[in-house]
Amino acid sequence: MYKLLQKLLFLLPPETAHHFTLGSLATLNKLGILKRIKPQSTQKEVEVMGIKFPNKIGLAAGLDKNGEYIQSLSNLGFGFIEIGTVTPRPQPGNPAPRLFRLPKANAIINRMGFNNKGVDYLTDQVVKARKAGFEGVIGINIGKNFDTAVEDATEDYLKGLRAAYVHADYITINISSPNTPGLRTLQYGEELDQLLSAIKAEQINLQTSHDKYVPIAVKVAPDLEADEIKGIAEALLTNKIDCLIATNTTLSRDAVVGMKHGDEAGGLSGEPVREMSTEVIKQFHNILKDQIPIIGVGGIASAKDAQDKLDAGAVLVQVYSGLIYEGPTLVRDLVKKLTNSR
Question: Which residues are catalytic?
């Protein structure tokens, strides 16, 4: 049934289809339909970062940038929802068109550019969801504003951290989007260490003032060499970061050469990033062992794909592009088939 719907949705421009789908989910949720068909997980509850997750399948950041569809998306069966990326101030993002489908590769290229309504709006949506009875796990993914210089990025992350802290179950520091100029330079060397040090210090301050510990995750790119992975891992350990999310989208175009839209600028997600992501997870896990948990994301379109991430060292997984190409049945399949996974 979804494949038929997908054909109709793919007649629309990608961003139009995105908003239409989310709006339709919200309507179905209000009618109580999603709750009635929500898959029941037989997975054991898993504890990561001190948080109890009802199952291992999460929604990656980017689909619900403003936290407007938390309950609707959760009722698809997700064990946790990550919203954002959100910036301190609202911003429109990059000019359209900025989202492209590559059906032959089961892939998407986006150069959205952190389009969002700002962190205050997002946290208001979380408050509304909680008041309406939502009890699930919410991660908030934060980034810097487009017009904030990279050398001033730390202050943007601190603003986002302070605003999101009391509303989030965990907070993700996004330093790996390819669509904000200079952002990925924050993944390396002294810049990374300084950022994480400041984030950790503020986390400790906020823990004291709010009497609540909110874990911090860092999201990295798949386009990393072995020495870069080693350097990032050491920085995460040194600054006692709570979690790693691997990975974001890739700049590589090797898998989509010659395809329509294959040369568009932006981050490539979906099937082409699957093996890259899994390999990065494996390399990080070889260094981090079980000192820092890993959430695996990138190209998951089946239970086998998710299992590969878990076998490589992830303890939780997230989906995004796979949901676009496989539909809600992907979540149902993952919930059922990962019951006895790592």
Answer: 177
Q: Is residue 257 part of a domain?
A: yes
Cα separation of 203 and 161, whole Å?
8
CATH code for the domain in which residue 275 is found: 3.20.20.70
Can you give the pLDDT of all 342 residues of the chain as single tens digits?
788 999 999 999 999 999 999 999 999 999 999 999 898 877 789 999 999 999 999 999 999 999 999 999 999 999 999 999 999 999 999 999 999 999 999 999 999 999 999 999 999 999 999 999 999 999 999 999 999 999 999 999 999 999 999 999 999 999 999 999 899 999 999 999 999 999 999 999 999 999 999 999 999 999 999 999 999 999 999 999 999 999 999 999 999 999 999 999 999 999 999 999 999 999 999 999 999 999 999 999 999 999 999 999 999 999 999 999 999 999 999 998 885 455
Where would I find the H helices in 153-188?
153-164
Is the peptide bond between 97 and the residue preceding it cis, with omega within 30 degrees of 0?
yes
Which of 79, 80, 83, 77 has the alpha carbon at shortest distance from 64? 83
Tokens of 337: 């088939």
Q: Distance between CA atoms of 278 and 246, rounded to whole angstroms?
A: 8
β-strands 46-48, 51-53 pairing: antiparallel
Instruction: Report the number of distinct structural domains present in the chain.
Output: 1
Omega of the bond leading into 85 within 30 degrees of 0 (cis): yes
Domain of residue 13, residue span: 2-337
Asked, for residue 56, whether it belongs to a domain, the answer is yes
342 lies in a domain?
A: no
Alpha helices in the chain (DSSP H): 2-9, 14-30, 33-37, 70-74, 119-131, 153-164, 189-210, 226-238, 274-288, 303-312, 321-326, 329-337
Which amino acid is located at 168 in the chain? A
Compute the Cα dihedral for 51, 55, 61, 65 and give only its sign: negative
* Burial bucket for residue 147 (CB in 10 Å: 0-12, 13-18, 19+): exposed
Q: How many residues can be counted in the chain?
A: 342
**Is position 82 within any domain?**
yes
